[in-house]
Structure to design on (462 residues):
């Protein structure tokens, strides 16, 4: 089969960092599928426009585009039903929708102000300029101002993980005894931070830290061996 | 079959109000099971101590006690497998654990300070005194002080529902096209508030409001027709 995945990178084409692309990377690995990586940068809108998207991940399956990490996960689940399930049934697929929203709001949204000014360091000049301009317009402040109080903001972020933390005291993964897409949704955000920022998000005695460690080790250490900071 | 359910009540034995008991009530209805209600009050510890619990819900199945709403939901799922599923498979059962924690922390924990001083109004004198003493010790403040700024605190509570709100813009229920235990977990908290407090938690144009309305109507309006405030 032919699978290709557009993934967000910066200067180093072998250092993918989008939280959403990492959700898809982990989902593909869970299904035992390998995809050819097509490195993609913020300013390369023209490369994916023909596939009907302005953002990555974009998956090409026999050249048919599948756009958006949630849609891709469902596509993989439906088109590769004989491989390990990403959701563990229809109830899990439905509930993963809420975990996907938690991943977007609490994880990606929570981490963004803690690492935002580190991101341009990974980007080529033209992409760094694009990133700065678009994000500063969105937040109405400079990247440095957004990130200025991260040493105190990270405390609130850690507190916001309490729902996850208490869950992980009861079972090893959000998906149960073994990880599934619910875990990859959340892990994508942590891996994004790990790739682009040396900032320490989690304390070592946090159950969320131990959980992240297990996902860094998953699939022969795929996420751990991908270039990043050891935080 | 013989099913009996200890449920928390106050002055009116036909007005159950515990968020956890409502999770179980909805779960029983989902399974098409009816249980005899055993009204239970805060100070009646002796009535349930023989069943190995200090709290309700306690379900008796042929006199065998099953304690704790999460354990009861799993018990019902495992012992009545031919009836409608509460979790929609093992993935849903696992992910519902995190939604259960969200229900405990964000919903019950979020609503508590908004209605806490209203609760004694529903209780007999001895139970009201117990409730006040134990909760004031836990919070280190009077019930009235805890609730004093609820008009501003409710704004933060509504904001904390964003994960749920965005989910409900994508699908009718947390459990998907139809409600399942994931919905009952969260609904239990709203129904608890509705039974004991006239305080308005949700704005009418909130997708969470519309979702709650549908659950009030479920099972022939079981929750709506149970005594409470029309808020």
């Amino acid at each position: 089969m032919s699978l290709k995945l557009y993934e967000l990178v910066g200067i180093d084409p072998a250092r993918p960092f989008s939280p959403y692309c990492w959700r898809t990377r982990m989902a593909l690995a869970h299904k035992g599928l390998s995809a050819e990586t097509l490195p993609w940068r913020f300013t390369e809108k023209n490369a994916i426009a023909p596939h009907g998207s302005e953002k990555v991940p974009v998956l090409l399956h026999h050249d048919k585009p599948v756009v958006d990490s949630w849609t891709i996960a469902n596509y993989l689940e439906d088109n590769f039903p004989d491989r390990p399930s990403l959701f563990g049934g229809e109830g899990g697929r439905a509930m993963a929708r809420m975990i996907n929203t938690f991943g977007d709001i609490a994880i990606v949204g929570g981490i963004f102000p803690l690492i935002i000014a580190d991101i341009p360091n990974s980007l080529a000049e033209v992409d760094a300029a694009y990133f700065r301009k678009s994000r500063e317009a969105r937040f109405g402040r400079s990247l440095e101002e957004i990130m200025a109080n991260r040493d105190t903001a990270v405390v609130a972020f850690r507190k916001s993980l309490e729902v996850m933390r208490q869950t992980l005291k009861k079972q090893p993964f959000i998906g149960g005894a073994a990880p599934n897409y619910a875990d990859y949704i959340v892990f994508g955000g942590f891996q994004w931070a790990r790739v682009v920022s040396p900032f320490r998000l989690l304390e070592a005695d946090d159950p969320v830290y131990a959980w992240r460690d297990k996902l860094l080790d998953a699939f022969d250490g795929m996420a751990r061996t991908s270039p990043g900071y050891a935080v």
Q: What stands out?
A: The longest strand of chain B covers residues 3-8. The radius of gyration of chain B is 17 Å.
